[in-house]
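Q: Focus on the chain.
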Amino acid sequence: MYYTEIMGTILDDDLEQHRALLDAWVEKKREIARLEAEAYELLAARVKVREADARENPHHREAIERSMIAEYSAAAHTSKYSIERAFADAAFLHCSSPQVAYASARESFQHGDITAAHVHEIVEAGFVVRQAVGEGRADAETLKLFDVAATVVAESDTPTRTRAQLRQLAASLVGETVVEQHKRAAGERSVSVRSVGDGLALLQVVLPEYLANAILDRLTQMARQVISVSGDREPVLSADVLDLGADPVFPEDLAPDDPLLDALDDPALDDRIIFGEGGTFTVDPFSDRDVEQIPSDERTMDQVRADLATDLLLASTPSEANGTGLDNIRGNVQVTISGSTLIGADDRPAELDGYGPIHPDIARDLASRNGGWTRLFQDPTGMVTETDTYSPTEGMRRFLRARDQHCRFPGCRMPVHRCQIDHNHDHAKGGRTEISNLCL
């Protein structure tokens, strides 16, 4: 219907049609976001009813909450986890307490400028700020500042990118609480399995983010190697195909009246008989038909990575000889850490580029095991201005990697070491090769 209405207007060229469809789609997405905001208001109102019920029946608080979650989950045909998360986000978004309110995010959500996914990232990243305010280590204005800045970020980026930037923002506002949070979170490491149907299961591993990304990077490198050589395999016949058994029959074992002796004189068998040492022989069973070739490996990147992970986990045995997880990391991660933190003068969080802060002890440990660190110089505002290399080309590359941290295309989180550097303004059309005209 909407397409018919738009295309019913006479448009002179394709560009106008493209723009009209894009504008209509964007407006529809904004309308959906506004409706989501209204739905969150209803969830927040339901939370207030739950709190009133719990105050009247304090011994049944947990049962009252479980009942509410189950009711809404069944009505919406969605998982309890998703509903529980939506209730939590709605409660924080519409909380009347100035210590935990998100006025800017709520207003942006109501206008359709951000989505429910953005709201979740704002609420989740703001946990350390709320905690600092609640414990008296920061005032309420800190949360308001986070709310305003987080909303600005969310309005101009995807939820995934927003997550990484808001972690950095929260870390800069409350500093060392991130270190304490990571210490507590490290105790939540776990492995679990649940069925997803059709004979498949989800193996979920919760572990520190830098290790998870290193594991994925290593699996990706190995998968690329497997895929790149998949066409080089030669067909190899199984030894079982030509096996004559435990008691093979040789010509001297045949009786004089055995018809096989006459068959040996058949000229048609000349090309099929394979003679060995000591008068032994056999007949080639494949000489009168084509040998089947091994089919090419048609697995996807994800399928190869899953198979490799299975092989590594089932075939490898951890031991002192193999070293620790840090010793065996061969995946690539990019970490940014200040010089003062690197030498132990302070404990400011380091940055796992593209993902968020990591514990400074982890960054220092990684630094001691790796020689590929690059020194960056910053101006008083914190802007990276140069590196400690002289070569112009490599220096520009280092600057771009430090600046971009990941692919700059909207929604893409590809790490910089897998990206290509490209011109914003086409070089063939006059674009200059300079920092301001380059990105990953």
